[in-house]
Amino acid sequence: MPVSSFDITRVIRPNILRLEPYRCARDDFSEGVLLDANENSYGPAYKSNISCDNGQIHVEPQADRLQLHRYPDPKGYEVKQRILKLRPSVGSVDNVFLGVGSDEIIDLIVRITCQPGRDSILITPPTYGMYKVVASINDVGIVKVPLIVEDGAFQLDVDAVIAAATGDSAVKVIWLCSPGNPTGTILREADVRRVLDSGFGGVVV
Predict the structure, then answer these.
(1) In angstroms, rounded to a whole number, what is the distance separating the alpha carbons of residues 11 and 109?
(2) pLDDT at 157
(3) 138: burial class by Cβ within 10 Å (0-12, 13-18, 19+)?
(4) What's the pTM?
(5) Element (DSSP H or E) covering residue 70
(6) What's the maximum distance between 2 C-alpha atoms anywhere in the chain?
(7) What is the C-alpha to C-alpha distance for residues 59 and 68, in angstroms, rounded to an integer?
(8) Residue 28 has what pLDDT?
(9) Which of 39, 50, 104, 134 might form a disulfide with 99, Cβ 3.0–4.6 angstroms?
(10) Can you tell me the distance from the alpha carbon of 132 to that of 134, in angstroms, rounded to the nearest whole number?
(11) Is residue 81 pLDDT above 70, yes or no?
(12) Closest C-alpha among 171, 155, 164 to residue 115
């Protein structure tokens, strides 16, 4: 589907679209003592000299360059800025998403796009095993379109992928693993572009 005609609101589950973003003090403040965060304003206990003199407790915090006693920026702005230096074509921090490994991101994509017990994902085995695990955990169907394996090609059967994805309205996500796991092969860019331009109304990852 051409980018100009892609509407993300038609892909995301309605209940997810209705969510109000969670906000914390870190969204508005980056320094000072934030009482709502239960932070130790004296610094990490293991880096503080604590003594008691006549019933009075004295705390001498030591310098902590890493600020490990503070909650980090929940949006990872500084990390994203560094990523942009490596990938300037991305354009903006708004286009960078951080996760705790790929497994968390896979799970989040499935959860925000697929209705449990109704929707499906499409995978191209042999491929990364977590796609199937995450789908099973979230009660999401799995459509399998095997890779072309003759002569060790391990490439997309593009016509079959497009037919399966566009012929079943329940398919919400197509997973194209490149480099392949466990195959190690890189999918042809022209094949991926054909899938993107096929008219499929879901998400291609």
Answers:
(1) 11
(2) 98
(3) middle
(4) 0.81
(5) none
(6) 82
(7) 17
(8) 77
(9) 104
(10) 6
(11) yes
(12) 171
